[in-house]
Amino acid sequence: MFRRMYITVASLLIVSTGLLLVLVGLAVYRELTNDVARDAEQAMVDAVPAVERALTESVYRDGLGPPVRDDLGNTIFYYAVGPAATAHSPHAPVPFSVVHGEAVLKHFVTFTYDNEPYRLYTVVVPDPTLAPTLIQTANQGSRASLPVGGLLVADALDQAVRGIADPSPLSPTKSTVVLYMYCLITQERSMLTHTLHLMELIGGAGLLLAVAGDLVLARRLVQPAFQTWAAYQEAVLELSHELQTPIATASAMLANRAVPEDAANDIRRELDRASKMISDMLYLSKLRSGLVDDPPEPVAVSDLTLEIAERYTPVAKAEGIELRGQAEEGLYVYTSQSEWERLVSTLFKNVIDHAKRPSTAVWSLYRRGQWVVLTVENDVAPQAANARRAPERGVGLQIVERLVHRMRGHLHWDADHLRFFIELQVPLLRPH
């Protein structure tokens, strides 16, 4: 019992500690991921003016021009689509068609190309290369008259741009440029992955330490209950021995004094009943504490039940009770022989003590699916009709209930002033 209690308490502590560590770790990692992404996104937003200056100050042909970096040192790649020309950064690792397909205006998007992760930011900015007079020239379709600092046409890129049916939000106007800015985030992902592995390592070590602490704490929590139960067991043992002394003394005094035979028999019967009740209380206490010594094994309950019934049949007959029944052959239960004998004997003794005289008590042992079922039914003695509590529901049936529980079975009884019926089911064991 206390082993199960200790395992339960320790398991609850370990599971709660593990869940707490996992939740805290996930919260910290999520917050770290959001902070890193937020800083990188802000750095990309802050790099928009630098890209605009690069478009104004440089001449861009295929792959030419100074690079642009953000405040974190990341290289910013971009495509700039204007009203009359297109341009791109000195190095364009991702084709424009892929970038355009992932773009969402004024939103950050992460995508993967060629097994490399990228972050993309799309924004519409005023055309940094067009003066008011040049805008008019551009409107007339004279793309060759753009100044040296303007957006020059890169033939391959221009064809790609013209080949895409661009919807309204990402279409440049006469005085604006659609700017597709993206950067490689491999280093960021690598840092987060390394951090996650480090957190897993530290969390695993912390969990092992927490498990050791939880085991010690669970033992300390269970210790008071164990001490209380030990004190209870000791008190029951001492009380039983103390009660046996006056019973033995009363029996000796009864034998040495002139007491009428009928009265002496009644007194001896009650003394024997008290002695057996004390013995039953001690056995019930052992069952409750789980300190029963008999190891379980396959037991042929069919033959054993018939033997016990044969022993109790003449005793019941002497009391005016006919005890009859039958047992199906070949039934096995995983228990101990002493426990099954104690269970059946307690039920038959209960019949003898409380059944109506004369009457017939019926028992039956049979198989029902994957269960072995034992039923006992008898007439109730008239004096039990006005009792506040049915006499059958005493220490004896508590012992039966505990034994059935140890066998992983179920117990059911039904009693009124006329009949008492009890049924128990225990798992059937197939013999090997």
TrEMBL record:
Its EC number is 2.7.13.3. GO terms for cellular component: plasma membrane. Signal peptide: none annotated. One of its GO terms (biological process) is cellular response to phosphate starvation. It is found in: Membrane. Keywords: ATP-binding, Kinase, Nucleotide-binding, Phosphoprotein, Transferase, Two-component regulatory system. GO terms for molecular function: ATP binding; phosphoprotein phosphatase activity; phosphorelay sensor kinase activity. It holds the Pfam family HisKA. Residues 238-430 form the Histidine kinase domain. It catalyses: ATP + protein L-histidine = ADP + protein N-phospho-L-histidine. This is histidine kinase.
